[in-house]
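Our preliminary data section would be incomplete without showing what the modeling component actually yields. Below, a chain of 499 amino acids is followed by its predicted structure, encoded as tokens that our downstream tools consume directly.
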Amino acid sequence: MIFDVAIIGAGVVGSCIARELSKYKLNVCILEKENDVSCGTSKANSGIIHAGYDPEPGTLMAKLNVKGAEMYPELAQKLHFDFKQTGSFVIAFSDADRAHIEKLLARGKTNGVKELCIIEQEKLKKLESNISDEACAALFAPTAGIVNPYQATWAFAENAVQNGVKLYLNSQVRAITKAVEADKTELFEVQTAKGSIKTRFVVNAAGLYADRINAMAGAKAFITKPRRGEYCLLDSNCHQLASHVLFQPPSKLGKGVLVTPTVDGNILVGPSADSVNSVDETATTQEGQQLVFDTACRTIPDLPRRNIINSFAGVRALAFTGSDKEPVPVNDFIIEEDSTVRGFITVGGIASPGLTAAPAIGVYVAELLQKEGLVLTPNQDFVPVRKGIESFARASASRKAELIEENALYGRIICRCEMITEAEIVQSVHSVIGASDLDGVKRRTRSGMGRCQGGFCSPRVTEIISRELKIPMIEVTKKGGCSYVLCDKTRSTDEVHHE
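Predicted structure:
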């Protein structure tokens, strides 16, 4: 098969592009180097849908941020992923901070952000009773929200596959060449770890690896420099600490340390902003965790450290031109067709607010491809909705009874912390893009995300994956590759009975 478009990368941006292109009569594929979608930046970020006051007016970042934020409420409803329009505050602690949020207010209005306003201390305290007494005012953005980023990525990718997009996992791109076929058609040949494919257009949405993909194709050179952000996650019993996304004034390194509720009822604190040498440096550090927590306590004093149930780090991609010795920051998304490699679309440097902008980036890339000759004939069979996995924990008592009546596996609680049932885990394995490891089940169902962090449920989830995929338990992994959970049996059942 010759594809019309091959998308490299199954993060939130690549998945949104794929879903947008599935609206048309096209042969589209996604090439992903990992064994699942959402395994890079998309799985480890703040999960914030930014209103759009931060990007510089006139940039692609500003345009696509605001448009993407407007798209999320409808998309969440259609694709069955969690989204809450909580609103956000940028808090001023001083006169200098107040001057800064007034600049953000003006910038946001220029960018087209709706309902922005500055509120004073009295109203702020009414809306967020736990906020520091030092907070004197705040920029209020009612259109901001929160989302489960890996759940959303899975939903976008799954809906794309439902509509005909081919997803190739474990397919790291190794080379990209261009040749003229016998009929004088120009095609790309993309060689992957699992073979090669031919395609008319290539979309590079490889995130942290986008600069390497451009280099393979001989496209415009740029440099991706990774920046690590560390986070602390507080238990759900702390949910009352904040009901909005709470930002401190941003710095040159990013939007600063925030305190935010998550869609699942936890409190998230972070991120730091550490320049690292490798995209794989996702380990947390004692210094980073201390910095994040202490900084967040300026927003909400006396955060309960004893209620931290997890810490993690994500790496975001910042784009630079120039050289390693003298890099020049781009300070915008790079979304363009290459001027020398025709048919090659770069989607690079998608740092924050990339999650917010992703659906709008999908529309923008489709328009770019159309300008370059791709015919976009509407797909009359396009299905815009996707059914997710119904949550047992959130169901009413009567609905719980109905679910158990329909499927007895809903009556078996596997993850006690999050009240995740065997039925939900089985569905996650057999979904359109099914989970094949513990982390995949975790991202789809939240099994293992509670206070014990999988201490009790991981053995049972391992057993269920083994049973449903018909593989030995020793072949079940945490996150693909060689991350095996078990190495062998310790003793046989007969030995146990003899004892």
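The chain has a mean pLDDT of 94. The two ends are 60 Å apart (CA to CA). Preliminary results of this kind motivate Aim 1 of the renewal.
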